[in-house]
């Protein structure tokens, strides 16, 4: 019984030949379509909402380094996504990649976080859009709603102070656009991206006219640097916050089944979108901090208030419109990606199969769109987003870590067997100096490298929590760091003792295993610094998901049916029935 369960939860997703290109969805998106999808997901809240808070409370003018460091951290994860997107252009993104690398159970756990990640992100953006629009109307919508329906709860609780009907309707409206078809939604998004870029250039050009470099030089009244008012720690804290402005590139992998020429298009679009958005973030944050001293920056509407203080009313209104456009970008792409993530798991049989239904006319997963749009809209309507938004952080970092680890497994596991029953290269073969080599090679293919990656992740968490808890300041913490450092070196040596396979693809992560391991280290440290309450909420959500998996998914898995079919074929060839026996005459 135990062995059957173990085989079930460790089975991996496999594609035969070009079957990874087969899809019920329509491949109709080109390079610019998906590049603009990623830009639309990243360009909005990061500029119009996040910038003011980071400048005022965390980094000051050094936010330009915060955005640069966060962009580099995102790029580390993007390398792994780009390789998987080129190899296996399927819907599901991190879920599918984990399924290929680590197996079914871990894939389900990662996949179970992705819909929640998108729903909370979409709800947060919808609420920001609603608040920005309502501020332009002097909070008329909020006051009218409270007057008609009353308050839901006190401020700071789990529920919102009032039902945000506007954000509910906004999510439903975006879903209607998405349901028409991927090309239509991509065109709508591209139009918003172009308008948003125009607004950003107006902000940059107009703002430079009011630049005052004294805002970057000299010291404050209490002797702090004007450029680094919160020190290097503030810059690094700002980088951790700014990191989540870049997470939109994941939408490229989520749309993998609807991309034309995905082997080339997805890697190019990944690096193009991150390069463009990093440049824009640095330019707009430089403009803001040159216009206004960091301690006078408005936290919720930084650019609008900065131009208002200069008497530039026209530019202020342009920025307000641009903020709504940018947030609409975020929302359209988030609502686009959400049902694709659900579709991938349902199509594999791990969650209810009817969620994978694709309409014949529009080629979209309509059931997933309807059900999860309603859930998403309800979250935006009644829940306090600030109480949930840290789920975005831990869910995203959790998924990114598994993608980076899966690249290592993919590179060092055994190569496929050709038609003659011979292995195509020496991939996964262990060096002769590896201790207990015969034992490791006796395990199923890919097990030794998977265990090595798991040990590395555990070591990184050990190191991160040693710093997080402050133990490093004590002698026992320093001894712990020493043992941990030795363990990391030994595990890295074990990974390097595996031979890489030589499978060809249009893009590969460079400097393997070092670059994916660096990405893992960065992601693990960011997760370690999240609050305890966030980890508790994650475990509760995982508990619900695992209940669904072990009661439904483990029995309806498409991969399980494939393995059963293969076993039946092998059995029939080994023990043919009487009708297939050769008789002598």
UniProtKB/TrEMBL annotation:
Alphabetically ordered keywords of this record? Membrane, Transmembrane, Transmembrane helix
- Listed GO MF terms: amino acid transmembrane transporter activity
**Topology in the membrane?**
Multi-pass membrane protein
Q: Which GO terms describe its biological process?
A: amino acid transport
Q: Which residues form the Cationic amino acid transporter C-terminal domain?
A: 507-557
- Entry GO CC: plasma membrane
The superkingdom of the source organism is Eukaryota
- What is its subcellular localisation? Membrane
Looking at the UniProt entry, the stretches that span the membrane are 29-51, 63-82, 94-114, 165-181, 193-213, 225-247, 268-294, 314-343, 364-385, 391-410, 443-463, 475-497, 509-529, 535-554
- Its name, as the record gives it, is Cationic amino acid transporter C-terminal domain-containing protein
């Amino acid at each position: 019984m135990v062995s059957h369960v173990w085989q079930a939860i460790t089975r991996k997703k496999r594609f035969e030949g070009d079957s990874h290109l087969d899809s019920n969805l329509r491949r109709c998106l080109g390079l610019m379509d998906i590049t603009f999808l990623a830009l639309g997901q990243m360009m909005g809240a990061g500029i119009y909402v996040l910038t003011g808070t980071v400048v005022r409370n965390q980094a000051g003018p050094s936010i330009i380094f915060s955005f640069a460091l966060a962009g580099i951290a995102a790029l580390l994860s993007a390398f792994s996504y780009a390789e998987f997107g080129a190899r296996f252009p399927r819907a599901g993104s991190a879920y599918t990649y984990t399924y290929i690398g680590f197996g079914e159970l871990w894939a389900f756990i990662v996949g179970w976080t992705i819909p929640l990640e998108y729903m909370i992100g979409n709800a947060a953006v919808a609420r920001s859009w609603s608040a920005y629009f309502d501020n332009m109307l002097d909070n008329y919508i909020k006051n009218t709603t409270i007057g008609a329906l009353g308050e839901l709860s006190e401020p700071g609780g789990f529920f919102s102070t009032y039902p945000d009907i506007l954000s509910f309707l906004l999510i439903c409206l975006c879903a209607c656009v998405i349901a028409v078809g991927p090309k239509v939604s991509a065109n709508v998004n591209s139009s918003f991206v172009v308008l948003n870029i125009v607004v950003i250039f107006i902000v940059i050009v107009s703002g430079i006219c009011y630049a005052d470099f004294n805002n970057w030089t000299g010291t404050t009244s209490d002797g702090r640097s004007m450029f680094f008012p919160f020190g290097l720690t503030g810059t690094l804290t700002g980088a951790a916050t700014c990191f989540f402005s870049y997470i939109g590139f994941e939408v490229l992998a989520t749309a993998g089944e609807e991309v034309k020429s995905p082997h080339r298009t997805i890697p190019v679009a990944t690096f193009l979108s991150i390069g463009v958005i990093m440049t824009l973030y640095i330019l707009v944050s430089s403009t803001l901090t040159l216009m206004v001293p960091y301690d006078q920056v408005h936290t919720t509407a930084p650019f609008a208030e900065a131009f208002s203080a200069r008497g530039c009313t026209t530019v202020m209104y342009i920025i307000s419109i641009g903020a709504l456009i940018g947030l609409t970008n975020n929302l359209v792409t988030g609502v686009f990606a959400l049902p694709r993530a659900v579709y991938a798991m349902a199509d594999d049989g791990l969650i209810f199969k009817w969620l994978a239904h694709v309409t014949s006319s529009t080629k979209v997963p309509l059931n997933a769109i309807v059900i999860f749009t309603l859930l998403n809209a309800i979250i935006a309507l009644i829940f306090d987003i600030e109480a949930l938004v840290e789920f975005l952080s831990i869910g995203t970092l959790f998924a990114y870590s598994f993608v980076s680890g899966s690249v290592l497994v993919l590179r060092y596991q055994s190569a496929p067997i050709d038609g003659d029953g011979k292995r195509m290269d020496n991939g996964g073969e262990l060096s002769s100096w590896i201790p207990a080599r015969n034992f490791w090679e006796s395990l199923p293919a890919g097990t030794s490298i998977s265990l090595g990656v798991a040990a590395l992740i555990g070591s990184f968490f050990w190191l991160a929590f040693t710093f997080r808890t402050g133990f490093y300041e004590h002698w026992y913490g320093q001894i712990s760091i020493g043992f941990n450092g030795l363990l990391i070196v030994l595990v890295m040596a074990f990974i390097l003792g595996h031979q890489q396979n030589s499978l060809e693809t249009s893009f590969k992560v460079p400097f393997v295993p070092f670059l994916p391991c660096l990405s893992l280290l960065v992601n693990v440290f960011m997760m370690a610094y999240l609050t305890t309450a966030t980890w508790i909420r994650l475990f509760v959500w995982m508990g619900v998901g695992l209940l669904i998996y072990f009661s439904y998914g483990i029995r309806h898995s498409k991969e399980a049916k494939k393995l059963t079919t293969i076993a039946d074929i092998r059995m029939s060839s080994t023990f043919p029935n009487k009708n297939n026996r050769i008789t002598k005459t």
